[in-house]
Amino acid sequence: MKIAVGLIVCFFCLVMAVGFTHSKPDTGVPVALAWFTTNAVAFASATGELQQSIVTLNDDTASLLKARAALKRARLQYKKIAFFLEYFFKSAALIYNSPSKYEIDEPYMEFREPTGLQVIESLLYEEHPAMKKRELLQQADVINSSAKDLNALLYGFTATDKQLLESVQLELVRVITLGITGFDAPLLKTGMAESEMSLSALQTVLQPFVGNATKKGAEVTNYLSGCIDYLHQHPDFDSFDRLHFLTAYALPLQRSLQAFIKEWQLQLNTTRVLNYEAGDLFNPTFLNLNAFPGTDSSAQWQIAMGRRLFFDAGLSGNNKISCATCHQPEKHFTDGLAQSIAFDGHSHVQRNAPSLLYSAFQYRQFWDGKAESLQSQVKTVLFNVQEMNADSGAIVKHLQQDTTYKKLISVASPIDKMAECIAAFVRSLNPRSSRFDNYIQGKGPALTATEIKGFNLFMGKAQCGTCHFAPLFNGLTPPLYDRTEFEVLGTTRTDDLLQPVADTDMGRYPLFPMEYYKQAFKTPTVRNAAATAPYMHNGAFKTLEAVIEFYNQGGAAGLKLPINNQTLSPRPLHLTPNEAASIISFIHTLDDAEPEGSFINKSNQ
Predict the structure, then answer these.
(1) Where are the alpha helices (DSSP H) in 405-478?
(2) CA end-to-end span of the chain, whole Å?
(3) Quick check: helix, strand or coil at residue 373?
């Protein structure tokens, strides 16, 4: 087993390494290689200690605490090499630090069996971890045997400074979005210490670049030191001031690092999604909209045409329903109903109509992800008998009778072109005009103490930020933002948590009948959530207070409802009423501004 695992890791990772070549002498790569070589050995040693602590694990508290402490040491050692391993040898990284749940993210549809340190953490925090000793030992054996072979990955390996610096930039995104939120270790709560280790590694490998004391290099050095010092001085996970860390240290570091890389002409961007030129994560252009499925056209005529079509009831089967019927601009592109009124005028569709704001930043559309693009979503709604119940011939005739639509009827497939235009309009609905956006970009007034507390809870103790990832606070997974998460929350049929009733909607499962997809739904954005009640796929929760209390109790599993595949942790969050109120205050800061009814005016032009 040990030999097989090691050979598989080496094979996949050596294949990935092929093609990395030197274009010129690289000053940073030798330092990074020396760092990795030394700390890979230290990581292997730490995994060996973890393995031995599990061997001696019994029902007593002392042996359990010893195992948890060994896990913490192993995780800290891993973070010293994570920037290098997760960029150059991603297959190997998945062995050590993949999620502790069965996971299939879109659009890749690749099965990920839980392995590694996160799985061990989950098992060590179960009610009787000693009863899971066999499973723990299997995980520890895989990790340790693979870690011993880590330096074999470097056989024949070459890289460039540009690649190295891109790995640094991606690691910084990891720290900002995953490290300080506790994504990797929600139970150990070692996020601050792990982030400190990650940035300390970056400090070492960046020294050959920034050590020449140029102005921009000095800025990188100062902000990086500031990040590390602040993390070291404030190690407590629950009380850590994430907003101060971001605004005073991490985001300025991100901006100064990119400026330095640009100055030295060492830019490299192998991703389609990230725009390093934007400077920092919260810049509205940081995520490249054109990297997401759908038309990449931003032609103003298409957006204007799509806007007009969006409000045109003549596209529906009864000439009474338009896209705006269920997605009303004045309601942040929702309709305020638990489920929208169906085509017949008295029944309801199956699910809640979510806001269209920022919906283009996903790899699948609809709650169950059945549409691969916005264009596909538009056509699905148009021809759904419960929704708009349109007829293609009647639509073409309607378009022909209105000279405004001249450009549409002149093409070979007017229905496809119409869907493309509506999709272009929906893709333009990315205002980023909230109070939070203005503050984080340094353009608006400070948030209140309660709102700041709410942000820190959202990104920390409440664990909201481990599913609703910054900067859009939706299910796009950092640092590459190349996947959309589907989660099983165990959402109840109503918001009566004293007498909870299980919901029967199977979510994504009917599309892909795999156990992991039973009741799995796409993670929507929290932006504008305060203005778009009711909540959840079924619209069952009337208030944000009810939503937070549902999470606070651990979802359906925490409420003791029968569910076997819940991806939400069943453990209570132990949020106080004051803390819940603070989170809601922060969520209100994510509402986009509507000066003089801007949504209505812009959408009705």
Answers:
(1) 406-409, 414-427, 435-440, 449-458
(2) 65
(3) coil
